[in-house]
Amino acid sequence: MPVPQPNPHLSNPQPWSAPVAPAPIRATVPIPGSKSQTNRALVLAALADGPSMITAGLEARDTELMRTALRTLGVRIEESQPGEIQPGEIQPEQTQSEQTQSGGEAVWRVTPPEMFAGGGTIDCGLAGTVMRFVPALAALADGPVTFDGDEQAYDRPMAGILEPLTVLGAAVDNTSRLPFTVTGQPELTGGVVEVDASASSQFVSALLLIGSRLTEGIQIHHSGDPIPSHPHIAMTVAMLRERGVQVDDNTPHRWSVTPGPIKTLDVVIEPDLSNAAPFLAAAAITGGTVTIPRWPAETHQPGDLIRGILETFGAEVALIDAGLVVTGTDYLHDVDLDLADASELTPVVAAIAALAEHTSHLHGIAHIRGHETDRLAALETELNRLGCHVTQTHDGLTIHSRLLHDSEWRTYADHRMAQAGALLGLVIEGITLDDISCTAKTMPGFADLWQQMIDDSELQDPADQHTLDRQA
User: Fold this and answer.
1) Torsion of CA 416, 108, 52, 230, to 10 degrees
2) Nearest partner of 158 among 120, 127, 199, judged by Cα
3) What's the rounded Cα separation, in Å, for the pair 216 and 281?
4) DSSP character for 314?
């Protein structure tokens, strides 16, 4: 089986020695906004019937790429820092006090154009939401739009969105991979399209997002293997309905969107629950306690599944007024988990499993071979380098825990791999990541926030000050 190559596409990798936790992690960690919600909110604001305000949106490479892409299509996005928004620019139901309580983040005012502009080139980077959602918008533009991205993105599957766009009436010069050019028309008819979304739920979400803007709406039929990360589709449907769009999803693998306007809506973005996972896992593996403020009581984010996952490993989990609290119990159970609905959690879950008492099995995640890197191969390679015994199955990993040792941890330009390496570094001295800068994809301040979490822990009860030696 081929082994993925480490970070071949980063010109300035930043090596990073993962800090060891000198005590059980005890900290409160504020997490920036959800990438999935932020980029969906941006796209919906670009399609809406008037200006929208987005508060607490994530500032990261993926969301910057999305804003730049939308501006290329003629969308106006004004970015104001905390305190710069005038009271009249906030809806009556959201007071300035409530805005501050939401995190005091910058506010973006998004004004859609009368018609999306063609003629530009869009850099997708490694952002799946940009390379899958924005071509659907480009199909409504008044001229050709070219898409390119990081070289590593050339391996990511694209046929699931580009082929349906051709059925709807857009012209695409390459329907399988980046780079490509979409030549659309401002008024696509719509109708019935068949899509194979077994490689990514984003293909369905992309079509759902533009469905009401098509003159006849859209009916989407999925054909193929099961769709991964289905909660992301549920998130898209919920956000459409919040804006007055009629979506029928009562029949499995079928969605119908009625034509009509997308109403403007001002939103406050939830914390990114997937990015919270390594911080919560830090409590589980060190026998400490971590609190994540503003954890939503109800959410469509797949990252919310980390609660049940950590409980399965043996941690104590409680959702209280202060946020989500995870407490480690000095024992990590082996697990058998289907991660199909939250595959982005796989690297962190695999890292925990490598420290568990016995053999763990992760499955339902064959599709993550096509993510930022082949994550199954990368995890197998890097965990084995630390002394673990990991083998791939057809749709996952079998992880036999072993006594682990220091080693380089290669990230493959993948932010989730970097998070997993940082987590293991808390309890295994001498782990060095070949690059930490890739975390900027969804969390530019990851390394600083990670160190702050450790520093806060050292300020706790001196009785807790001891070097951790929990190596499975």
Assistant:
1) 0
2) 199
3) 47
4) T
Bond preceding residue 30 cis, omega within 30 of 0: no
Amino acid at the residue 262: I
Closest CA to 360 of 378, 385, 379, 373: 379
The reported pLDDT for the residue numbered 84 is 55
Under 8 Å CB-to-CB from 97, ≥6 apart: which residues? none
Q: What is the largest CA-CA distance in the chain?
A: 68
Is residue 292 within 8 Å of residue 323, measured between CB atoms? yes
Distance between CA atoms of residues 376 and 278, nearest Å: 18
| Residue 337 structure tokens | 């988990």
pTM: 0.86
Inter-CA distances, 392 with 228, 304, 365, 372, Å: 18, 26, 11, 18
- The first and second tokens of residue 393, run together, are 């199955």
Of the candidates 379, 426, 419, 425, which has an alpha carbon nearest to the alpha carbon of residue 398? 379
Do residues 278 and 419 touch, judged by C-beta distance below 8 A? yes
Handedness of CA 248, 111, 117, 235 (dihedral sign): negative
Instruction: Name the residue among 318, 317, 315 with its Cα closest to residue 328.
Output: 315
What does the DSSP 8-state code read for residue 387?
Answer: T
Strand, helix or coil for residue 336? strand
Residues 6 or more apart whose CB falls under 8 angstroms from that of 92 comprise: none
What ranges make up the beta strands (E) of 68-162?
76-80, 107-111, 121-123, 144-148
Q: How many CB atoms lie within 10 A of CB 25?
A: 29
The confidence band for 224, taking pLDDT boundaries of 50, 70 and 90, is confident
The pLDDT value given to residue 82:
63
Q: Determine the Cα–Cα distance for residues 442 and 301; give it in Å rounded to an integer.
A: 15
Could you report the per-residue pLDDT of 391-440, keeping only the tens digit for each? Answer: 999 999 999 999 999 999 999 999 999 999 999 999 999 999 999 999 99
d(CA 93, CA 41) in angstroms, rounded, equals 19
Query: Which one of the listed residues 270, 344, 372, 380 is annotated catalytic?
Result: 344
What digits encode the pLDDT tens for the residues 285-340?
999 999 999 999 999 999 999 999 999 999 999 999 999 999 999 899 999 999 99
Annotation says 344 is catalytic? yes
Q: What is the DSSP annotation of 250-306?
A: -STTEEEE---------EEPPB-HHHHHHHHHHHHHHT-EEEETT--SS---GGGGH
